[in-house]
Amino acid sequence: MAAAGDEVVVTCALTGVLTNPAQHPVPVTPAEMAAEARRAFDAGATVMHCHFRDQRPDMGFLPSWDPDVAGAICDAIRAACPGVVLNLSTGVVGDDISGPVACLERVRPEMAALNAGSLNYLKLRGNGQWAWPPMLFDNEVGKIERFVLAMDRLGVLPECECFDTGIVRSVAMFQAKGLLKSPVHVSLVMGVASGMPAKAAWLPLLVDEMGPETAWQAIVIGREEVWDVHRRTAELGGHLRTGVEDTFYLPGGAKTAGNGPLIEALVRVAQEAGRTVASPEAARRILGVA
Fold first, then answer.
1. What does each C-alpha distance from 94 to 98, 135, 142 come to in angstroms?
2. Fold for domain 7-287?
3. What pLDDT sits at residue 57?
């Protein structure tokens, strides 16, 4: 359990991967990303998790691994939020990791997501049809090793994203093998239909599978059910993350206008659990980044 006053690092996941900005409040352009980051920063988020979208509306704002796009967005966020910690996505299907690595090289973020295992990424509609063609999000060990080597070379801290219980347990093996350095940072991704459910009751069991020095947070995808998981995460000593990548819904079910109100609600969750929200300087110390 967290002790009263324990500092908690709050992360904002700024934008969705495929979400249509014409229908949902997701930022896309450097100016939009910086403005949303500043709202989240003012509300208490000190880490910004970034995906990048193609800047051409005719392309549907699809995901982009253009390092110039990544650089323009991250430069704008850093200018808007002095002392912010950047955490870049690296999630890519297939063996070619050159795009994510090029973005890491251009931005030199403090942290980056490291997808720590594979998952059949599935969702079934109520009529029994697949919501999209079944997809393998492939992250075999050789691919993980290449990402870790690139991050080590660039001084980037890996954040191990774990979509299922076996992936959580694999992280300990990566550490024992010497692939990951201590302390390890783990994100429990909950709410993907074919992964771990967004259920607070799972958290003590998952925490028990991690080493005592593991820093962890919950990434909770869904509607208003995500808030029970956030509360339990705060109580158990985990760090906290939300944003329009993860949910559009505030406690109580109202739809958010953007990232700022979500972070405000998450900070209240932390405070109600007796936690102190870390400043940018404290977040860097806690995370172990320069």
1. 11, 11, 12
2. TIM Barrel (3.20.20)
3. 83
3-state secondary structure of 159: strand
The answer, yes or no, to whether residue 1 has pLDDT greater than 70, is no
Separation between Cα atoms, residue 18 and residue 184, nearest integer Å: 29
- pLDDT, tens digit, 9 for 90 and up, residues 118-128: 999 999 999 99
Closest by Cα among 2, 4, 6 to 282 = 6
- Residues whose CB is less than 8 angstroms from the CB of residue 71 and which lie 6 or more positions away in sequence, other chains included: 106, 107
Strand partners, 88: 50, 112
Burial track 10-42 (b if 16+ CB lie within 10 A, e otherwise):
bbbbbbbeebebeeebbbbbbebbbbbbbbbbe
Contacts by residues 56-62 (CB-CB < 8 Å, ≥ 24 positions apart) = 60/20, 61/20, 61/21, 61/28, 62/18
Residue pair 46/278 in contact by the 8 Å Cβ criterion: yes
Please say if the pLDDT value at position 3 is more than 60: no
| For residues 50-62, average pLDDT | 89
Cα distance between residue 15 and residue 51, in whole Å: 6
Give 227's pLDDT tier (boundaries 50, 70, 90).
very high
Q: What is the DSSP string of 96-146?
A: --HHHHHHHHHH--SEEEEE-S-EEE--B-TTS-BSS--EEE---HHHHHH
**Rounded CA gap, 125 and 131, in Å?**
6
d(CA 193, CA 23): 22
Confidence of residue 170 (pLDDT cuts 50, 70, 90): very high
Look up residue 18 and give its amino acid: L
